[in-house]
Structure to design on (350 residues):
């Protein structure tokens, strides 16, 4: 397994690192995966997202562009708001999950790494129809702050904790955006680096890609390529809360088929399972099946799984739409060449 020392000086977080074009975009671990996981699931963590892209559009034409481009309606959001939304293709599949940050007269849009280049190209292509400018502000960085003690960590650095759906600016050039169970922090590279170091000194631990899987699984946070792809409807993979059909005149890309699917009744939803098994999570089959006891709908399928800090298997799964928190489940999989069945329980739904 590649560790951070193969990419970066694995000292204390990112101290001493000069951010350049040659700085690696992917850090698997900062050296002690067990310690990182403990911090992520019981304390506070920092997850670098330097491979993300930040684009900016402004004015009336910029608003028209975003109302066409994403599932949320930016016209309903004021300065100081932030939101997660999706870019869809014409078939209603998710091309890109984005974070939108509303400023006075302009919007910053964060394109997450997995499909950032595609999202940038798509944004520019669509912008032509609205004569809207899509710019990339120079030297912008992005990182996540999460974990049960994330809010306490912000307080330790004298940062007010914004309510979900809003952002605050603890210092010039740094914005702390609050979403459910996690904060996205973006801003000017040099100032963001300094703010990262403040948070690390206050107890937040940097985590790599290995532990990020556990951290996002624990809060039922889906990822492109793992829990959804361009064939997935946002309504069925935990991204439906941003889909706004209320204005019949707003035809965002992919609306027709997405709305038709909504009216026909969604088939599944993203949920978090706690699984009781003696097998290591890494030894599960790539697509274990889930049956919710007493549910007449088709079974579900696990998309991501990991070990909790206590050793319990946590799994994200596409579950029948009628599932409820507390539902008991049977999980079928293969391990060591044998068919296995174990018990699970739905502990969260998105």
């Amino acid at each position: 397994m590649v560790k951070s020392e193969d990419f970066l000086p694995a000292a204390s977080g990112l101290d001493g690192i000069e951010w350049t074009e040659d700085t690696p975009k992917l850090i698997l671990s900062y050296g002690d995966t067990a310690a990182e996981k403990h911090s992520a699931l019981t304390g506070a963590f920092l997850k670098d997202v330097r491979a993300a892209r930040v684009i900016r559009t402004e004015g009336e034409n910029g608003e028209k562009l975003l109302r066409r481009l994403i599932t949320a309606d930016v016209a309903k959001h004021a300065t100081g708001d932030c939101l997660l939304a999706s870019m869809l293709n014409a078939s209603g599949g998710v091309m890109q999950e984005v974070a939108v940050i509303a400023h006075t007269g302009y919007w910053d849009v964060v394109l997450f790494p997995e499909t950032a280049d595609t999202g940038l190209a798509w944004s520019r292509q669509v912008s032509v129809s609205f004569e809207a400018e899509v710019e990339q502000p120079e030297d912008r960085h992005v990182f996540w702050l999460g974990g049960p003690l994330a809010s306490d960590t912000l307080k330790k650095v004298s940062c007010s904790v914004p309510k979900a759906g809003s952002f605050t600016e603890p210092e010039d050039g740094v914005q702390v955006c609050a979403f459910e169970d996690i904060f996205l922090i973006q801003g000017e590279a040099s100032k963001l680096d300094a703010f990262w170091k403040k948070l690390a000194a206050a107890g937040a631990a940097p985590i790599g890609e290995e532990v990020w899987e556990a951290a996002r699984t624990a809060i039922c946070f889906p990822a492109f390529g793992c829990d959804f792809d361009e064939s997935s409807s946002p309504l069925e993979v935990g991204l439906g809360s941003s889909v706004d059909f209320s204005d019949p005149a707003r035809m965002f890309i992919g609306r027709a088929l997405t709305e038709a699917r909504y009216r026909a009744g969604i088939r599944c939803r993203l949920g978090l399972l706690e699984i009781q098994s003696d097998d290591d999570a890494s030894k599960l089959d790539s697509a274990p099946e889930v049956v919710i006891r007493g549910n007449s709908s088709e079974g579900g399928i696990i998309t991501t799984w990991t070990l909790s800090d206590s050793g319990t298997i946590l799994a994200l799964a596409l579950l029948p739409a009628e599932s409820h928190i507390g539902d008991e489940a049977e999980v079928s999989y293969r391990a060591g060449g044998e068919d296995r069945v174990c018990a699970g329980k739905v502990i969260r739904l998105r």
Summary: The first strand starts at residue 45 and ends at 48. Residues 1-222 form a domain with the Gyrase A; domain 2 fold (CATH 3.30.1360.120). The chain has two domains: 1-222, 267-349.
